[in-house]
Specification:
heterodimer; A: 290 residues; alpha/beta; Rossmann fold; six-stranded mixed sheet; globular; B: 357 residues; mainly alpha; two-stranded antiparallel sheet; 14 helices; 2 strands; cell membrane (chain B); membrane (chain B); Iron ABC transporter permease (chain B); transmembrane (chain B); transmembrane helix (chain B)
Chain lengths: 290, 357
């Protein structure tokens, strides 16, 4: 035991000076990309660079053509150093918050080029994200076209929003936790989308996603409840909760789901997602008043 | 007749000692096999002779830079050594606690170190983020905080359980339950305060992983793990005497109070450093000593080293599986240890459980 320990310690000291040189330069224009983050993958695909994506993470679910059949490096916050190295010479383009930090450090030390992309859930944040990714993949022209398209989308959305008089109060449920709705508070992507869709967040007073008590749900009195579509969460599940059934949304049956990445991802489809949300709210609230 | 009886007993003792020695050698080989397997296996296929060549290059200080050498030297070697050391330390800590409490259900978590480390880690993840932001947080803040939290909780418990220089093992156990619950409540508050991202970090942390073990991290926690491991091995005789009872052990010349303090401190050190290295890895501390007793019998002179070897082999093996099973992604190791260890343990209990009863 002692001897093997001594050996281990000797190895540690030896290797400290013998690490491989990380500066082994790679040609970025042709290096395959490991795309980490659903919106990152979407943007790379929208720039016409989908064929350069070598692998994706579990949050990358769209477009199907860009992600189908590609190796999956796991959840974006739990990447594996060796798994990514095993993909051959690649570079990683990861959304801010990907990790763990130690794994990214190891990858960088092993010579993998890693780029982090800021991810602020707002129109300006989305445009910045598109610009930095288009620079990273060397598709600046396509990047300009895409940002112009997204800006036009937001402008059209703003015009539609300006014509609206109704500002429905919306409760966004990201998941059910032990039968309790986890609702979106301030500073969440869901709250940002509600603003874009001309709606108000029915709950306030906390940041991010928190479980709501029955009384808080009733007190919030949402006109509509939007939830993240996922296996095991349906409108019927939410309507079965007495607290939700007691709200205006519950009484009008104005409870509907939307795809998580589409609605919350802040990718190229965001203006369309906001318009879809707006239309869905109108449909549910109009249908209810009859 | 009686002479023949004595001879038979002596033969039996000798035979048992020989089996114990063979078992220890076998476990040593198992740990060595886990080391070799771990260095040679992973999502990136590297031929065994290439692994050996890279290690030889490293030993002479002439490494040819490349993906292979980076994977073996910067990715696999530190995490494998960390897994061996942490597994050994957790295994031996379990044996220490079961010996100290004279109860096969005792777990290193009983002295509060896991709960304290968990609370400290949650503090770092949630409040550290609020104070300075996730990116400004020093990389060692989480492991260092977890380690200190574990030690602090254990120190508190020990102070509660000690009156006039005597430590009551019963109060230690009961206070451990209370303090763990308190620390759990504190962690619960922080979980409630955490945002989605912090919650994910906490969850992954509580499942454990050797992914991202760097040489600098190993250099920080490795010596602590080694110290706890080696220190525990010196307590074998005292633990054997303690089986008879505290007063009896005292009569046999064992400094019982000092020995209890040593067992608690070494356990806190082992679990604190293991948690700091890889997050929470349950199951090893409680189950490894049981498996070991089924193989080498109850004498601590064999149980302690055997627990170290089996713990090391188990974690290094589990880490290898965690690395390859969903490649290029990676499974948290706590899932693997429980998924593979628990059925094996159950199987052994069903087959040979009568020996424990």
């Amino acid at each position: 035991m002692t001897r093997s320990l001594r050996l281990a310690i000797a190895l540690v000291t030896l290797l400290a000076g013998a690490m491989p040189d990380p500066a082994a330069a790679v040609d970025l224009a042709d290096t395959p990309i490991v795309s980490v983050g659903g919106a990152v993958t979407e943007i790379i695909a929208s720039l016409g660079a989908a064929e350069r994506i070598r692998a994706v993470d579990t949050t990358s679910t769209y477009p199907a053509a860009a992600v189908a059949g590609k190796p999956n490096v796991g959840y974006m916050r739990q990447l594996s150093a060796e798994g990514i190295l095993a993909l051959g010479p690649v570079r990683v383009i990861a959304v801010e918050g990907a990790g763990p930090p130690d794994v990214l450090k190891l990858l960088a030390e092993a010579g993998v080029k890693i780029d982090r992309v800021a991810d602020e859930p707002s129109p300006a944040g989305l445009l910045a994200k598109v610009r930095s990714i288009s620079a990273l993949v060397g598709r600046k022209t396509e990047g300009e076209a895409l940002t112009a398209e997204i800006e036009a989308g937001f402008a059209a959305l703003a015009r539609e929003r300006a014509m609206r008089t109704a500002h429905p109060r919306v409760l966004f449920v990201i998941a059910l936790q032990n039968g309790r709705p986890m609702a979106a508070g301030a500073k969440s992507a869901a709250a940002a989308m509600m603003l874009l869709a001309g709606a108000d967040n029915a709950v306030s007073g906390f940041d991010g996603y928190k479980p709501l008590s029955d009384e808080a749900i009733v007190a919030a009195a949402p006109d509509a409840v939007v939830f993240m579509d996922r296996p095991g969460l349906t409108a019927a599940d939410l309507l079965a909760l007495p607290a939700i059934a007691a709200t205006p949304a519950g009484r009008r049956n104005a409870v509907f789901g939307m795809d998580g990445l589409y609605l919350l991802g802040f990718g190229p489809r965001t203006p369309a997602a906001a318009r879809d949300l707006m239309a869905a709210l109108d449909r549910h609230l109009a249908g209810a008043s009859k | 007749m009686s002479a023949a009886g004595t001879v038979a007993v002596a033969d039996l003792t000798r035979a048992r000692r020989r089996t114990g020695r063979i078992a220890l050698i076998g476990l040593g080989l198992l740990a060595a096999a886990a080391l070799v397997l771990s260095l040679g296996t992973g999502p990136l296929a590297i031929a065994p002779d290439r692994v050996v060549a890279i290690l030889a290059e490293a030993a002479t200080g002439r490494v040819v830079p490349g993906t292979d050498s980076a994977v073996v030297l910067a990715v696999r070697l530190p995490r494998t050594l960390a897994a061996l050391l942490a597994g050994g330390a957790l295994g031996v800590a379990g044996a220490l606690m079961q010996g100290l409490f004279r109860n096969p259900l005792a777990d290193p978590g009983l002295v509060g170190v896991s709960a304290g480390a968990g609370l400290a880690a949650a503090l770092v993840i949630v409040l550290g983020d609020r104070l300075v932001g996730a990116s400004a947080l020093p990389a060692m803040a989480l492991p260092f905080g977890a380690f200190l939290g574990g030690l602090a909780t254990t120190a508190l418990l020990y102070a509660v359980a000690t009156r006039e220089g005597r430590t009551s093992v019963t109060i230690l156990l009961l206070a451990g339950i209370a303090v763990s619950a308190l620390a759990g409540a504190g962690t619960g508050i922080l979980v409630y305060l955490s945002d989605d991202r912090q919650l994910r970090d906490l969850t992954f942390w509580s499942l454990g992983s050797f992914g991202g073990t760097t040489w600098s991290k190993l250099a920080a926690t490795g010596p602590l793990l080694a110290l706890a491991l080696l220190g525990a091995l010196t307590l074998a005789r005292a633990l054997d005497a303690l089986v008879l009872g505290e007063a009896e052990a005292q009569h046999l010349g064992i400094p019982v109070e000092r020995m209890k303090a040593a067992a608690v401190v070494l356990t806190a050190l082992a679990v604190g450093a293991a948690v700091a290295t890889a997050g929470v890895i349950g199951f090893v501390g409680i189950v490894v000593p049981h498996l070991v007793r089924l193989i080498v019998g109850p004498a601590h002179g064999r149980v302690l080293p055997a627990s170290a070897l089996l713990g090391a082999a188990l974690l290094a093996g589990a880490d290898t599986i965690a690395r390859i099973i969903v490649a290029p992604a990676e499974l948290p190791i706590g899932i693997v240890t429980a998924l593979i260890g628990a059925p094996v343990f159950l199987h052994l209990l069903i087959g040979r459980g009568t020996r424990l009863a």
